[in-house]
Amino acid sequence: MSGVALPGDPPGGRRAVTVWSIGVAVYFVAIVFRTSLGVAGLDAADRFHIDASALSTFSILQLLVYAGMQIPVGLLVDRFGTKKVLTLGVVLFTLGQLGFAFSPTYGTALASRALLGCGDAMTFISVLRLGSRWFPARRGPMVAQLAGLVGMAGNLVSTIVISRTLHGLGWTATFAGSSLAGVLVLVVMLLFLKDHPEGFEPPPAPHPGAASVRRQIAAAWREPGTRLGMWVHFTTQFPAMFFLLLWGMPFLVEAEGLSRATAGELLTLIVLSNMVVGLVYGQIIARHQGARAPIALSTVGATALLWACTLAYPGDHAPMWLLLTLCTVLGACGPASMIGFDFARPANPPERQGTASGIVNMGGFIASMTTLLAVGVLLDATDDNYRIAFCSVFVLEALGVTQILRLRRRSARRESERLVTSRVEAVHVPA
Questions:
Q1: What CATH number has the domain bearing residue 220?
Q2: C-beta pairs of 312-315 under 8 Å, 24+ apart in sequence
Q3: Which of 158, 144, 208, 184 is nearest to 344 (CA)?
Q4: Tag placement on the chain: N or C end, fewer CB within 10 Å?
Q5: Nearest-5° Cα angle at 116, 113 to 119
Q6: Distance CA 268, CA 263 (A)
């Protein structure tokens, strides 16, 4: 029976790929908008006349809104489906990007990034839900990794295209022009996106009263797999996220003495490494579920080692070979963070997948937001000493690893119990 699709398991196929690709295109545009500030950090500081702490507030606020929206978005997706939530998300993040283009003051720019973060928060969980509705469960790890890979391609657009047009066309033309991509994906989505294939309609969701919402969240949180997934996401995502989102370009230019062009190439290397590693991790985990925790912990260890070598290297600047190695290893952080969803998915029934994914997705963005704030404050306090400021990475990694080790066995035991129960139920299903 191992090769037979589970009852109610979607068949996949070309139609599934087409519909899922539309959702992923929305996520791609959201990532372009989210990471566009990462290559515009120095320009934003000049445009709004702000210091490091104020600059970090842009990304902190954006991630604060994003993280705070994860559980509500998960509940909305479980209740209303993917298309409605994605539509609202596209409208919000497009308005945010457009508002950022024309913001005359620091305050209005902050408001625009908050709006962008709110819309961005509605994309990834919706895409995960879309994948689970259109593809068989056994495809889950690979589908999730591919979604993350396409998202990183959006990051690639930021590091290559946005950075060049910013200095060629200027601030307003670059951000306003990029917002047109949001309009395009909105039209395509409204015309062609469907929540699920014919014949696989989910049962009607009950009206989400306050009590049922609390029960939904509590039930998802009680599962060790959900909590383990959140801490895996927390620990693996942020070492690269804070670097790509804001502090990578200033660090490479101001602390390491590189040109903007060379710094941009190193940021591009992170994205390319992410895309390659994502394919490898997805294939391994799809075949060997037991590799999830070892891969995540190995990625954390390698990341910590390379950060330590870079920050402790004697002299004013780390050598190029070390920076290249660091950026290559940072590329594994995104794919490793996707493993968090692979812990939460089997721990929760289909009607709770959005809520559980929202809890998991909060982890990395809370860690990234904390690191962005810590680095900004420490840079101002130490007269722009990046080596001291970036040591905040190790504190959060140590916290995350402690929680992963604490929950790992409990989650594995619970997952085994659920697997045995599902096999027993499958045996008793009438032919």
A1: 1.20.1250.20
A2: 312/387
A3: 144
A4: C
A5: 155
A6: 9
What's the whole-model pTM score?
A: 0.77
DSSP 197-232: -TT-PPPPPPP--HHHHHHHHHHHHHSHHHHHHHHH
For the chain, how big is the Rg over CA atoms in Å?
Answer: 21
Residue 63: closest CA among 361, 304, 398, 403: 361
Per-residue DSSP letter, 39? G
With respect to residue 424, please indicate whether it lies within any of the assigned structural domains. Answer: no
33 lies in some domain: yes
Roughly what angle, to the nearest 10 degrees, separates helices 106-120 and 52-80?
30
Cβ atoms 346, 286 nearer than 8 A: no
pLDDT tens figures, 118-168: 999 999 889 888 888 888 877 777 788 788 888 778 877 887 888 888 888
Q: SS3 breakdown of the chain: % helix, strand, coil, rounded to 5?
A: 85, 0, 15
Reported for 142-146, long-range contacts at CB under 8 A and 24+ positions apart, including other chains, are 142/282, 142/283, 142/286, 143/20, 144/282, 144/338, 144/341, 144/342, 145/278, 145/279, 145/281, 145/282, 145/285, 145/335, 145/338, 146/24, 146/278, 146/279, 146/282
Structure tokens at 37: 């500030």
C-alpha angle 221-284-4 in degrees, rounded to nearest 5: 80
Measured CA distances, 91 to 35, 125, 163, 412 (Å): 18, 17, 24, 40
Total domains present in the chain: 1
**pLDDT tens per residue, range 383-420:** 989 999 999 999 999 999 999 999 999 988 887 776 66
Residue 118 lies in a domain: yes
Q: Residue 8's pLDDT band (boundaries 50, 70, 90)?
A: low
Burial 58-81 (b: 16+ CB within 10 A, else e): bbbbbbbbbbbbbbebbbbbbbeb
CA nearest neighbour of 362 among 256, 221, 246: 221
> Domain range for residue 348?
14-195+216-418
Task: Report if residue 387 sits inside a domain.
Answer: yes
What end-to-end distance do the CA atoms of the chain give, in Å?
12
Tokens 């954006």 belong to 62
- Nearest residue to 45 (alpha-carbon basis) of 327, 247, 333: 247
